[in-house]
Design brief:
The protein is built from ten helices and 36 strands. The chain has about 725 residues and is of the alpha+beta class. Helix 8 (about 560-580) packs antiparallel against helix 10. A hairpin with a 2-residue loop joins strand 10 and strand 11. The chain has a 19-stranded antiparallel beta sheet, with no helix packed on it. An eight-stranded antiparallel beta sheet has the order 20-23-24-25-27-26-22-21.
Length: about 725
């Protein structure tokens, strides 16, 4: 067979393989409206090229398949510059990024992010050397500050977190635990005069049990607090001190710690991943320098008029052969305007929230007394239409308002960093709420605030009892684990209408997981059970607002190693908590934003409009938390056997860049008599392991096993 014939055969085989793959993808796709482009082709021939982008940016370096690939240099019009390795149009490998301010980062890059080992030198001279994960300091690292201070230890999500040692330029030093960039936990502070404190810390101050020792041998043991009324302890003088010493513990806060302030980390206004260019086939001119077989370069620009000219490829460009195409998401819900059947209920709710949150209350510590959690701790308020001494006149009907455990929920809002004024404006402002149809079988109504920040759900009396019963443990859990995935509750209330109906409506206020600048393209509700776990909508009616279920899932989600480890630990903690509280029937709510789209969306995190044609949305790494706005990759899966309920399909190798949101929801169902009867009845008809109603211990194990098959570590 001649060389030409062999080339024709190879081309034919490649075409057949691609057509088979395309057919398989179409057959396994659940949604015909959505198609995505896998990145699978091997790179073609590598050239040296110079590219002037239409916006004024300039690239020079190695080029392949219409993308930077290999060593290259990119200059932005605003003065930023990257020099280093590229792979398929993204910074990947070793490189150096510099900002116009003079700041530089030199080290490892991955998919456009500072990721791996690297050194960042800020414009003021601050220097960090250590590990990075997705643009954030994460792992072990050292930081030298321009004022002479020095830190060595653990970092998490850009801040000191874990064990670390901080040395001030005046010689004082602290060694111990950190959280969110502050001294928090057990640790030791040693001053240059020989004094030292060993004990508990909270937000850069001694808080809890601790001992202060002086250089002469005297010491003070007790409970420390910035609030003098909470401070208690005993002073033990040494023989050298003569026993005559009047010590006020508050001087540690007012004097001794004045010279021990932790320096703030320099804020990176623009991350390299946010600067990554979005390559287009026909937007600029390219001058190629083709390398011949003997290693010599030849300049060529023939045939490049009107775009890339003879650079046009006959095969699809990687990641562009089937761009993601999703119809613009419609705004969820029906606005509750005058005339709506629940209009008066909305007015009652807003009046009650305004009264509860705006009511003057003493500043309370997060350390609550057990009496605050008493289910009998509730406040009734009458709201007559003409108003009263404590309530304003209003246009709604006469009703009564009940606050459950108001001190606890006020503390929860403080713990979750909810500003009271913003909370009140979101729920009780001039804009009406929006009513959603119930996505589940509970029959509950859901209401969204105008800014999408909060969701209000009507609940049954039994669910109120469950929440009040588990409230002490819930409060302790969310306080101990700030990255918990369980639903955040902000308030529990009841509206009782007066008159003949005497109707009671109980509802809970929660955070809305999908309140984001990213459009949620797909959402899933995952329990780990298979019976009845498919959507009941025809395929043609499925859109971005449809909540899909376990057997509809056709992806697995690949998380970065550090995020995956955090995810596994937190799922274990949350499931242990729910199991101890005898809770079952909860689920993992998952939302996906596909970063590569070919439709116009309302906005991106950068505030820019989507261009026509595929592009990647930018990620605000400063707002990333576990379960919130996490960059990840989704790999499409396929279920081989249509006649068998296969939980997680087999990976196909098709990977898509996504932004991921997830949380554990519906945590107010305990394993009561109704669920036990449901389990007994359905076990006769179906496989007992496939139904949702099972014992909390079995439910927890099944849920964990399933979730950890869907969420995996990216390799």
């Amino acid at each position: 067979m001649s060389k030409e014939q062999r080339g024709i055969v190879k081309a034919w085989e490649a075409t057949v393989r691609k057509s088979q793959q395309a057919g398989k993808k179409r057959a396994t796709s659940l949604f015909t409206a959505m198609s995505v482009a896998p990145a699978d082709d091997d790179p073609g021939e590598v050239y040296d090229a110079e590219k002037l982008v239409s916006n004024g940016d300039f690239y020079t370096g190695q080029w392949c398949d219409n993308l930077p690939h290999g060593q290259g240099k990119y200059l932005w019009t605003d003065g930023c510059m990257y020099v280093g390795e590229w792979q398929r149009g993204k910074t990947m490998g070793k490189g150096k990024f510099s900002w116009p301010s003079g700041a530089t980062y030199e080290g490892d890059f991955k998919s456009g992010y500072m990721d791996g080992k690297g050194t960042f030198i800020g414009s003021t001279g601050d220097t960090y050397r250590g590990t990075w994960v997705m643009n954030l300091k994460h792992g072990h690292g050292t930081k030298s500050y321009s004022n002479g201070d020095y830190y060595e230890g653990e970092w998490r999500r850009g801040l000191q977190d874990g064990h670390g040692r901080y040395q001030w330029t005046n010689g004082n030093h602290y060694s111990g635990k950190w959280r969110n960039g502050m001294l928090h936990g057990t640790g030791t502070m040693i001053w240059t005069n020989g004094n030292r404190y060993d004990g508990c810390w909270e937000e850069n101050c001694p808080k809890g049990n601790g001992t202060l020792k002086w250089a002469d041998g005297s010491f003070y043991v007790g409970f420390w607090s910035k609030d003098p009324s909470d401070q208690s302890g005993t002073y033990y003088p040494s023989a050298a001190s003569g026993g005559d010493f009047d010590f006020d513990p508050q001087q540690v806060y007012s004097v001794d710690l004045n010279d021990c302030r932790v320096c703030c980390c320099e804020n990176i206004l623009v991350y390299p991943s946010q600067k990554m260019p979005h390559w287009s086939e026909n937007e600029a001119s390219v001058r190629l320098r083709r390398m011949s077989v003997d290693g010599r370069l030849s300049n060529s620009s023939d045939g490049l008029e009107g775009g890339l000219g003879n650079l046009e490829l006959k095969t699809p460009i990687r990641g562009r052969n089937r761009p993601l195409s999703i119809p613009p998401a419609r705004r969820q819900g029906v606005t509750i305007a005058k005339g709506h059947k629940n209009y008066e209920l909305m007015l009652n709710l807003q009046l009650g929230i305004r009264h509860s949150v705006g009511r003057p209350a003493p500043t309370t510590s997060l350390d609550l007394k057990s009496s605050a959690f008493d289910p009998k701790e509730k406040v009734w308020t009458k709201f007559p239409p003409e108003g009263s001494k404590y309530t304003p006149p209003h246009a709604s009907c006469d009703f009564r308002w009940k606050d459950y455990c108001p001190v606890v929920f006020r503390s929860l809002r403080k713990l979750f960093k909810v500003d009271p004024a913003d909370y009140m404006i979101s729920i009780c402002g001039n804009d009406a709420l929006r009513e959603l149809s119930s996505p589940g079988k509970s029959g509950s109504f859901f209401y969204l605030t105008y800014d999408d920040r909060y969701m209000i759900k009507t609940i049954k009396k039994a669910e109120v009892k469950v929440l009040l019963r588990m409230l002490p443990a819930y409060y302790k859990h969310v306080r101990a684990f700030e990255n918990t995935l369980v639903t955040k509750f902000y308030g529990l209330h009841c509206v009782k209408l007066t008159g003949a109906t005497q109707k009671k409506v109980r509802f809970v206020i929660m955070g809305n997981l999908f309140c984001s600048e990213y459009t949620i393209h797909r959402r899933f509700d995952l329990k780990g059970s298979s019976h009845g776990r498919t959507t009941d909508k025809p395929e043609g009616e499925i859109d971005a607002t449809t909540t899909l279920k376990d057997l509809d899932l056709n992806y697995i989600f690949r998380l970065h190693k550090a995020w995956f480890q955090d995810f596994c630990r937190q799922v274990d903690r949350d499931c242990d908590f729910l199991e101890q509280e005898r809770i079952m029937d909860y689920s993992m709510l998952v939302g996906l934003h596909f970063r590569e789209t070919s439709t116009q969306e309302p906005s991106t995190p950068s505030g820019e409009e989507f261009e026509a044609g595929p592009r990647l949305t930018r990620i605000d790494t400063g707002s990333i938390r576990l379960g919130i706005g996490m960059p990840a990759r989704a790999e499409r899966t396929i279920r081989r056997n249509e006649y068998e309920a296969q939980f997680v399909g087999e990976p196909t190798g098709e990977l898509y860049e996504i932004v991921l949101f997830f949380s554990i929801i519906d945590i107010l169902q305990d394993y009561d008599i109704s669920k036990k009867l449901e389990h007994a009845y359905k076990s006769i008809q179906y496989d007992p392991t496939s139904i949702s109603a099972v014992d909390p211990r079995q439910y927890s194990k099944r849920f964990r096993d399933f979730v950890l098959r869907v969420f995996v570590q990216d390799t």
